[in-house]
């Protein structure tokens, strides 16, 4: 009797315990690297070497003018922009488009019927552009940085617009606006605004910048700097996600640095602005992609695509300057070419202030790997790191380039079953095979 009772307990327990689900595979880099564009200004063929994901700042008042109840006539906006031409050209060039629906500049009292109009807009947009329909836009952000909307109002517009999108095309991915794990502020809404609405969103949306100092310098630091919240803010959202919305993705839809050739203006808000060099911009963008790939981040979008060389915050953040590639353009293009068919596998080394070494495996599963190795800070002179091969073979090594053409070759020394790699602030990529 005693043995039978124990066996019954074991049987019941084993039938009610569900094995832990296997974690989803990390994204391939071609499905991970993105850039922020803007409507008719974006030139898909120019940025195609750098990424296959593009995020558009889409002002929804272009579609209904000054009347939020206006019945949209997609694909044409009320101001006569042809979205078929815009998003169609992006798709033709091989881009996957994410739209950030911007209503930040619409005063709350200008909505005729906030919830009704928001629902109608989401429904109409998804029914025309969504993956099940014209398939020009695959994901939709409900707001960019709607800080001027109070939390309860944002929650109402989010619910209404999300319900409309779900009805219009259940296959369309829905994102929150820029979100923070804490209190709302001028540029982000708190995660509290969407708590409990898990069926209405698929992705938590984060903007993060490596801000080391506030106004008046707006100085930014390197991405691994332990003193800044650059990576920590993403980790906080991930912790909230794990607790309140398990299974949802996290996208970093804005990150970047400004590199201008001009001195700041002598007067005004940016008179004491401190920018970064083009080399720093290139290194820190590429290293950010590497760092994000080891975090709970499923996509990351550079801010910005082009700039006019303005010495101020967000004024010189482009991959191009006046449509001419900057150093970061070539560095990012090389990273996509190198890692596009690979996904993050594991950390080989991570020593704060000294060295990071990550492994990426090829999508084919045939054993091909790329190791990315870099130094996180200029405070430690250039040095070497020894990495065990474990019976594998190092085929070649290249350093992140800053110009068009072949990337600089890197000499790596073999010692027994190890390789010795020179560590620099610019990532070194090493091709590894069986």
Characteristic terms for this protein:
disordered N terminus, globular, eight-stranded parallel β-barrel, 25% helix, 434 residues, 2 domains, TIM Barrel, five-stranded antiparallel sheet
Structure, described:
The protein has 434 residues and is an alpha/beta fold. It folds into 2 domains: 314 residues, TIM Barrel, CATH 3.20.20.80; 90 residues, Golgi alpha-mannosidase II (Immunoglobulin-like), CATH 2.60.40.1180. Helix content is 25%, strand content 25%. The chain has 9 helices and 20 strands.
Structural class designation: alpha/beta
> Fraction of residues in helices?
25-40%
How would you write the strand order of the largest sheet? Answer: 1-2-3-4-5-7-8-9
3D shape:
globular
Strand percentage lies at 15-25%
Distance between the termini: 57 Å
* Low-pLDDT residue intervals, each spanning 5 or more residues: 1-18
From the alpha-carbon coordinates, what is the Rg to the nearest angstrom?
Answer: 24 Å
Instruction: Give the biggest beta sheet.
Output: 8 strands, parallel, barrel
CATH superfamily of the largest domain: Glycosidases
> Any idea of the CATH topology of the largest domain?
TIM Barrel
Order of helices and strands: HEHEHHEHEHEEEHEHEEEEHEEEEEEEE
Question: How many runs of DSSP E, i.e. beta strands?
Answer: 20
* Averaged pLDDT: 94
CATH architecture of the largest domain: Alpha-Beta Barrel
Number of separate helices: 9
CATH top level of the largest domain is Alpha Beta
Count of discrete structural domains: 2
């Amino acid at each position: 009797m005693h043995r039978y009772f124990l066996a019954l307990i074991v049987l019941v327990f084993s039938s009610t315990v569900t094995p832990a689900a296997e974690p989803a595979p990390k994204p391939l880099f071609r499905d991970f690297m993105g850039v922020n564009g803007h409507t008719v200004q974006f030139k898909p063929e120019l940025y195609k070497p750098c990424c296959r994901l593009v995020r558009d700042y889409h002002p929804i008042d272009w579609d209904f003018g000054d009347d939020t109840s206006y019945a949209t006539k997609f694909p044409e906006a009320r101001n006569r922009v042809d979205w078929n031409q815009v998003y169609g050209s992006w798709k033709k060039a091989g881009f996957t488009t994410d739209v950030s629906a911007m209503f930040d500049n619409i005063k709350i009292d200008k909505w005729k019927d906030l919830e009704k109009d928001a629902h109608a807009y989401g429904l109409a947009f998804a029914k025309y552009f969504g993956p099940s329909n014209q398939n020009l836009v695959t994901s939709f952000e409900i707001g960019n940085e709607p800080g001027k909307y109070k939390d309860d109002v944002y929650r109402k517009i989010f619910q209404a617009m999300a319900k409309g999108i779900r009805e219009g095309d259940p296959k369309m991915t829905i994102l929150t606006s820029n979100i923070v794990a804490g209190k709302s502020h001028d540029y982000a809404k708190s995660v509290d605004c969407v708590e409990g609405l898990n069926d209405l969103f698929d992705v938590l949306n984060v903007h993060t910048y490596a801000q080391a100092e506030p106004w008046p310098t707006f100085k930014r630091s390197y991405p691994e700097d332990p003193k800044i919240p650059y990576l920590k803010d993403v980790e906080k959202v991930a912790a909230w996600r794990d607790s309140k919305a398990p299974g949802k993705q996290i996208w970093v839809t804005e990150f970047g640095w400004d590199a201008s050739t001009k001195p700041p203006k002598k007067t005004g808000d940016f008179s004491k602005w401190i920018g970064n060099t083009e080399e720093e911009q290139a290194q820190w963008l590429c290293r950010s992609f590497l760092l994000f790939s080891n975090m709970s981040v499923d996509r990351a979008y550079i801010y910005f695509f082009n700039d006019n060389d303005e010495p101020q915050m967000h004024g010189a953040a482009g991959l191009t300057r006046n449509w001419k590639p900057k150093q970061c353009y070539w560095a990012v293009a090389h990273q996509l070419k190198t890692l596009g068919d690979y996904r993050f596998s594991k950390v080989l080394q991570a020593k704060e202030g000294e060295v990071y070494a990550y492994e990426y495996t090829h999508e084919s599963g045939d054993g091909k790997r790329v190791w990315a190795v870099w130094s996180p800070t200029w405070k430690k002179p250039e040095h070497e790191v020894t990495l065990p091969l474990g019976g594998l073979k190092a085929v070649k090594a290249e350093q992140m380039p800053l110009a068009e053409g072949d990337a600089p070759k890197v000499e790596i020394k073999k010692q027994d079953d190890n390789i010795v790699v020179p560590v620099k602030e610019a990532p070194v990529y090493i091709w590894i095979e069986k």
